[in-house]
Design a protein that fits this description.
Helix content is about 40%, strand content about 15%. It has about 475 residues and is α/β, with parallel strands linked by helices. It folds into three domains: about 80 residues, Winged helix-like DNA-binding domain superfamily/Winged helix DNA-binding domain (Arc Repressor Mutant, subunit A, Orthogonal Bundle), CATH 1.10.10; about 230 residues, 3-Layer(aba) Sandwich (Aspartate Aminotransferase, domain 2), CATH 3.40.640; about 100 residues, Alpha-Beta Complex (Aspartate Aminotransferase, domain 1). The strands form three sheets. It has an eight-stranded mixed β-sheet with strand order 3-10-9-8-7-4-5-6, with helices on both faces. The protein has a three-stranded antiparallel β-sheet with strand order 11-13-12, covered by helices on one side. It has a two-stranded antiparallel sheet with strand order 1-2. Strand 5 and strand 6 form a beta hairpin. Helix 8 runs parallel beside helix 9. The radius of gyration is 23 Å and the shape is globular.
Length: about 475
């Protein structure tokens, strides 16, 4: 076993040392694809650490895709991470990267945004086939030569004034957020928004509270800036604020998805929301509200945004049109306190100057003329029907082994299993059969919560039923099914 014994005198924890050395051995090719790791007891004895230390390191490597557990057969280096030959090994980053550049390069091991065509049950994929492209094209053609010439110039990095005004009015009507148009900074989706926030409000080694399980793209953006992402456990009321702030008293920020937690689907209760806002005021900290699919609430009563509550002056609201319209649009926004707008605009200018003028102008008109409202009404109806089709199809195809509870919000459902159980095997089998199924463990840091995530919004009923038949048959073979 080409791993040195752990050194208890180092400042890093033993489990972190074991994790880093195992990961390094895989990346450098010392542990090749298909190599079976020793049983945890033998491994722990060889390294001079406890068995729990080894289990923690291996579980983290498994969540990141470096190793895979085969039921009844042990844990192996995955084909994607290790190489049987030199040509198959991970390509090392080029020499000469800065520390921050190396951190950004390393995020590829933690988060690889999918680029393949979306298939059921991919998470986060909205319906795109029925988007009103004809309406969008008509609005684009309405621009006169003078307007087109103006949009072809360098523009305000904070965004088109008409779009900022339209967003501010929409937020008040739809999410209960009172803000001035001057507080809206247009960006390229929520991922760029998180990146801008990390660059402007955090320093290297600052601590940020993130949900666990939570969206890996948020952690990747933070870690790429040298920020320490600290886990907040989740329960039925959302993020466990009190426990996390007591555990990490030096945290400068918390990033949350309170309307529909990603990926567990929990809605943060009012008491937790108030506790979070109180923490931010008391500690002069920031709260980032990622409202990625807050428009998709299907009940008669809509829960307003965290940013709409009294005492939310320390909240930065992040919104995106990638879910409400389509990801190819690449438009989102930050609602920031007035004093931060100019710094955010300048950071946007340094990054990519500004969003395309034509797209901003058409979107402003699309919102102002009521097309966004009509589109969302149709999507809410459609998504509800698809959610029901998913629940029925999975229950039928699995002979009752997969029973998903209904939800009055969101674009995906979670089928949760026993804590610490294997949720990777079914996903690998589904992937081999052409179905995109994500394990809950992929989104975890320390959390032992396990299960499977079913995105349904972007797929028609025949595709949902076809994918459900595949997963349902596979689920019937699982132990205890």
């Amino acid at each position: 076993m080409p791993i040195a014994r752990a050194n208890p005198t180092l400042s890093t924890t033993l489990r972190q040392q074991v994790y880093e050395r195992l990961r390094g051995a895989i990346e450098q090719g010392s542990l090749r694809a298909g190599t079976r790791l020793p049983p945890s007891r033998e491994h722990a004895a060889a390294l001079g650490v406890s068995r729990n230390t080894v289990l923690w390191a291996v579980q983290r490597l498994q969540a990141e895709g470096y190793v895979e557990a085969r039921v009844g057969d042990g844990t192996y280096v995955s084909q994607a991470a290790g190489g049987a030959t030199r040509s198959q090994q991970l390509v090392a980053p080029p020499r000469g990267l800065s520390r921050r550049g190396q951190l950004i390069a390393d995020t590829a091991a933690r988060w690889n945004p999918p680029v393949a065509v979306a298939r059921a049950f991919r998470m986060g994929a909205p319906e795109v086939d029925t988007f009103p492209y004809a309406v969008w094209d008509r609005l684009a053609r309405q621009a006169g030569p003078g307007q087109r010439a103006a949009r072809a110039q360098y523009l305000d990095p904070a965004g088109d004034p008409q779009l900022r005004e339209a967003v501010a009015q929409w937020l008040w009507a739809s999410r209960g957020i009172r803000c001035d148009a001057a507080q809206v900074v247009v960006c390229s989706g929520s991922q760029q928004a998180i990146d801008l926030i990390a660059r402007l409000l955090l320093d290297v080694d600052d601590e940020v509270l993130v949900e666990d399980p939570g969206y890996p793209g948020i952690r990747a953006a933070l870690l790429g800036h040298g920020v320490r992402a600290r886990p907040m456990a989740m329960d039925g009321e959302g993020a466990c604020i009190a426990e996390a702030t007591e555990r990490w008293p030096g945290a400068h920020m918390a990033v949350v998805t309170p309307t529909h937690q990603y990926p567990t689907g929990v809605r943060m209760g009012l008491a937790r929301r108030q506790a979070l806002l109180q923490w931010a005021r008391t500690h002069d900290a920031w709260v980032v509200e990622d409202d990625y699919d807050g428009e998709f609430q299907y009940g008669a009563q809509r829960v307003p945004a965290l940013c709409s509550l009294p005492g939310s002056e320390r909240v930065l609201y992040v919104g995106t049109f990638s879910k409400t319209l389509h990801p190819g649009l690449r438009l989102g926004f930050i609602v920031a306190p007035p004093a931060l707008v100019q710094p955010f605009a300048m950071a946007r200018a340094i990054t990519d100057r500004h969003a395309p003028g034509d797209a901003q102008a058409v979107l402003a008109q699309f919102i102002a003329e009521g097309h966004l409202l009509r589109h969302l009404r149709q999507m809410r109806e459609l998504y509800q029907a698809r959610q029901q089709a998913l629940r029925d199809a999975l229950a039928d195809a699995s002979d009752g082994a997969l029973q998903l509870a209904a939800s009055d919000r969101g674009m995906h459902l979670l089928c949760e299993r026993a804590p610490g159980s294997d949720d990777e095997t079914l996903c690998r089998q589904a992937q081999a059969a052409g179905v995109m199924l994500a394990p809950l463990s992929r989104y975890a840091m320390e959390s032992q919560r396990r299960g499977w995530l079913f995105g349904y919004a972007g797929f028609d009923v025949p595709e949902i039923k076809s994918a459900a038949r595949i997963v349902g048959k596979l689920a019937q073979r699982l132990p205890g099914a």
